[in-house]
Write a structure and sequence with these properties.
The chain has 10 helices and 17 strands. The chain is an alpha/beta fold and 360 residues long. The protein has an 8-stranded parallel beta sheet with strand order 9-8-7-10-12-16-14-15. Strands 2-3-4-5-6-1-17 form a 7-stranded mixed beta sheet. 31% of the residues lie in helices and 22% in strands. It folds into 2 domains: 142 residues, ornithine cyclodeaminase, domain 1 (2-Layer Sandwich), CATH 3.30.1780; 171 residues, NAD(P)-binding Rossmann-like Domain (Rossmann fold), CATH 3.40.50.720. The radius of gyration is 23 Å and the shape is globular. Strand 5 and strand 6 form a beta hairpin.
């Protein structure tokens, strides 16, 4: 069997390739570029065939498939969420994804998405905050200082102008890691001893915790007029971060309502609880923040269109930089109707001895 011509083989972007891509372009540039791609795709929201992700839950975590397509391109992401993985030397979240041509079904990109998911999550958070938070917000509380936290910090610093982070995590080692990683970033880092302390004086509160539990990390007594809450960590059934009273006092925005009602913080609210989808605000068909004193919540669970946009960005960047390699994923057939012929390799078919019938 010979492999197909390069034109019919997808580009493979490995985890080391993705790291090289981000280093060469710069983290800020990549987050901003992905945010621009997400905005562009959200503005054409009606063009996409959308569905909630398919999830397989287990006692230790969840494995999910996230498909979406328009009339030219299809993508899916495979992603897990296993909070206890770090105890055995594995990341909590691991992912890969595919872009394909709708007209032929031919895969065009196979890519890591572990690093890229962190970039697109931060990009989505910043895009939502640009749309919903008060202008001139400068102080952010960052609750949960794990693997996603640095990306959120950099995104808010460079896309919104946040200059001060108030940090809290129940694991002090996570906060120490974050402080070390962001040294030299230009951000003022203030380590706090509780969520209640961290949110004091914050214009924006980002929650990005990992535990699969119905938690109430932010409660109504912590709210102040004009606050924007970026709730990122609640992303599956039985996993929340905000008290119901917080949602009752806020104007709530989501990505894809059918998915968020199952997975987001609004899973604890009545089925008719009012929400606005972010794309509606971006397209100007619904209002975002109505006044400066309003409390807004972005109940983010992650949606397939964000990964579609991120894969587009990474594909374009990899081609520009000459990164990645062609993956021999598709068999080459002189006659596309003769798949069996690929096993012959041009040689004569060897004699195949019949198997004897087995009897009990």
């Amino acid at each position: 069997m010979t492999t197909a011509p390069l034109a019919t083989q997808p580009l493979y972007l490995s985890a080391p390739d993705a790291v090289t891509l981000v280093r060469r372009l710069g983290l800020q540039h990549c987050i901003a570029g992905i945010a621009q791609h997400i905005r562009a795709d959200f503005l054409r929201w009606p063009d996409f065939d959308k569905s909630a992700r398919v999830a397989n839950h287990s006692p230790n975590g969840v494995i999910e498939l996230m498909p979406i397509s328009d009339d030219t391109a299809y993508s899916f992401k495979y992603v897990n969420g296993h909070p206890q993985n770090t105890a055995i030397g594995l990341p909590t979240v691991m992912a890969f994804g595919v872009l394909a041509d709708v007209a032929t079904g031919l895969p065009t990109l196979v890519s890591e998405l572990t690093l890229t998911t962190a970039l697109r999550t931060a990009a989505t958070s910043a895009l939502a905050a640009q749309t919903l938070a008060r202008p001139n917000s400068r102080v952010m509380a960052l609750i949960g200082n794990g693997a996603q936290s640095e990306f959120q910090a950099i995104a808010f610093q460079h896309l919104l102008g946040i200059d001060t982070l108030r940090l809290f995590d129940i694991d002090p080692h996570a906060t120490a890691k974050l402080v070390a990683n962001l040294s030299g970033s230009g951000l003022t880092l203030q380590v706090c001893t509780s969520t209640a302390e961290a949110v004091q004086g914050a214009d924006i509160v980002t929650t990005v915790t990992a535990d699969k539990a119905c938690a109430t990390i932010v409660t109504a007594d912590m709210l102040v007029p004009g606050m924007h809450i970026n709730a990122v960590g609640g992303d599956c059934p039985g996993k929340t971060e905000l008290a119901a009273a917080v949602l009752d006092r806020a104007k709530v925005f989501v990505e894809f309502t059918p998915q968020t009602r199952i997975e987001g913080d609004i899973q604890q609210m009545p089925a008719d609880f009012a929400v606005t989808e972010l794309w509606e605000v971006l397209r100007g068909t619904r209002t975002g923040r109505d006044h400066n004193d309003q409390i807004t919540v972005f109940d983010s669970v992650g949606f397939a269109l964000e990964d579609f946009a991120a894969l587009r960005f990474m594909h374009e960047a990899a081609l520009t930089l000459g990164l990645g390699q062609r993956l021999a994923l598709i068999p080459h057939m002189a006659d596309p109707k003769n798949l069996f012929g690929t096993l012959l390799g041009g040689a004569h078919l060897a004699a195949i001895e019949p198997l004897e019938c087995m009897t009990a």
